[in-house]
Amino acid sequence: QLQLQESGPGLVKPSETLSLTCIVSGGSISNDLYYWGWIRQPPGKGLEWIGSAYYSESTYYNPSFRSRVTISVDTSKNQFSLRLSSVTAADTAVYRCARHDRYSYGTFDPWGQGALVTVSS
Amino acid sequence: NFMLTQPHSVSESPGKTVTISCTGSGGNIGNFYVHWYQQRPGSAPTTVISEDNQRPSGVPDRFSGSIDSSSNSASLTISGLKTEDEADYYCQSYNSNNWVFGGGTSLTVL
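Output (structure tokens, whole complex):
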């Protein structure tokens, strides 16, 4: 059964870069059927897609984040990562990783449990 | 920009039927699948309807989904409401290399 687990610092200072990793187990990140995505949820608010990557390094980003975000895939470690630069308090959120289908634009499934990242000095 | 708009909240009594709408703007909602997620507090979202109207294994048949192209909207209907259905529900679709979520609807069963 495929499982995803986020890891990274829970506290980031304003203007610095948020970095998170999603470790994939129970399946290969090199499966060409799937994208690997990041979604965030500020406290008490809704879901927001940040971006997605394909193992061949193709990436797609939400225009709202495009200038600040980088998603990369490490097939040797079966994991993918998120970097979000120049963070502010508005970037405080639970960040989750998820897999989604490349060809049928299918659901995000499964999801990681999420990592709360607080932006504060 | 393609957007999906949901009512902020809905409430209904146990045993009744509730419908949550998801209206598309900036694009045709019928061009790509709409999916629906249930999210309980402190948990990751789970899929209750995929590909407009398909129920994943384990989701009760009380949950159903539909698309109305004439109004550019999708709907999630939950019949025979149970208190355990109380949660946040999100629609989600795709348009022009963007994966979009609706703002979410808080369902209260009282």
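Residues 92 and 101 of chain B are 4 Å apart (CA to CA).
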